[in-house]
Write a structure and sequence with these properties.
It contains nine helices and seven strands, in the order H-E-E-H-E-E-E-H-E-E-H-H-H-H-H-H. It is an alpha+beta fold. The chain has two domains: 115 residues, 2-Layer Sandwich (Alpha-Beta Plaits), CATH 3.30.70.2330; 115 residues, Serine Threonine Protein Phosphatase 5, Tetratricopeptide repeat (Alpha Horseshoe). The strands form two sheets. It has a four-stranded antiparallel sheet. Strand 1 and strand 2 form a beta hairpin. The protein starts with a helix and ends with a helix.
């Protein structure tokens, strides 16, 4: 009798231990799935998100085929693009192709865009522009290689009412991008003028509550103040930064730029003070 009871207790213990092991393994598996679902690369943080401006940002797919990366390399941030439905696409009946303004294929929107596809099929209009375009390590044929990454901003509702605001917003992004990548290398004076023009146009957008709502472009105060400092215009640099710090900028600038202008303000004030002292001494 004692042996029989011992066997029963042993069997029960084995069953309990096995159940605990399975439960623990299941929990670890679920935790891993959650991590995989929620973990995103910093360079993909805008993909498939809806921001506070009512603009949906998505990452362009399929750009590695048919020389599309070469075509994208000729584009720049802020360029408008065309969204075109492909209802007869054999891989995805909700496929939405992305074309340049001259009709060249650039890629596709991510799959599972049924509501957006239906909206286009019903005659809806959409404003779309290139939001980001940069090189990064991307998966190609089972390995990571350097390639282009492109994200788009789209307005997935009747766009006629906001087309003017969105177009100006992206025209400003394009101006700032070209100034940063090209004009700065050729002429500091021209770059300063371009950044000042961009800031004046942004202020004009901000004066209208309707257009202010759709502004996503950041005030290029970091680049402007940097150019002014490099050109020795310390007084104008201090004035520009102090103006921005007092400005009611609802969009704001990124942390890196904010930190840079704070340090620059302190540094340029010292330079300006030293210059004044030298002038008095001479």
């Amino acid at each position: 009798m004692y042996v029989f009871l011992s066997v029963i207790v042993l069997i029960v213990l084995l069953v309990v231990i096995r159940w605990c092991i399975k439960a623990g393994a299941s929990k670890r598996t679920n935790d891993l799935r959650v991590q995989k679902q929620t973990k995103r690369s910093p360079n993909r943080k805008y993909a498939s998100s809806l921001n506070s401006k009512g603009l949906r940002s998505v990452e362009l797919k399929g750009i590695q085929y048919d020389n599309r990366e070469e075509r994208l390399a000729d584009c720049t941030v802020g360029d408008p693009v065309i969204l075109q439905r492909e209802p007869n696409n054999k891989y995805d009946r909700n496929a939405i192709a992305v074309l340049s303004l001259d009709g060249k294929m650039l890629g596709y929107l991510p799959r599972k865009r049924m509501s957006l596809a239906k909206y286009l099929d019903d005659g809806g209009k959409i404003v779309a522009h290139i939001r980001d375009l940069y090189k990064d390590r991307v998966p190609r044929a089972g390995q990571y290689v350097e390639g282009l990454v492109c994200t788009l901003d789209i307005v997935p509702y009747e766009a006629d009412a906001v087309k003017e605001y969105v177009s100006e917003d992206y025209a400003l992004k394009r101006l700032i991008h070209v100034t940063y990548t090209k004009t700065e290398k050729n002429s500091i004076v021209d770059a300063i003028s371009a950044y000042q023009d961009a800031i004046n146009r942004i202020q004009k957008l901000d004066r209208d509550p309707a257009s202010r709502k759709y502004r996503t472009v950041e005030i290029p105060i970091n680049r402007l103040s940097m150019m002014l400092e490099q050109n020795g215009q310390f007084g104008e640099c201090i004035e520009a930064i102090e103006w921005y710090l007092d400005y009611d900028d609802k969009q704001g600038i990124n942390y890196k730029d904010k930190r840079a202008i704070d340090k620059r303000l302190e540094r340029v004030k010292k330079k300006s003070g030293n210059r004044s002292s030298n002038d008095k001494a001479s």
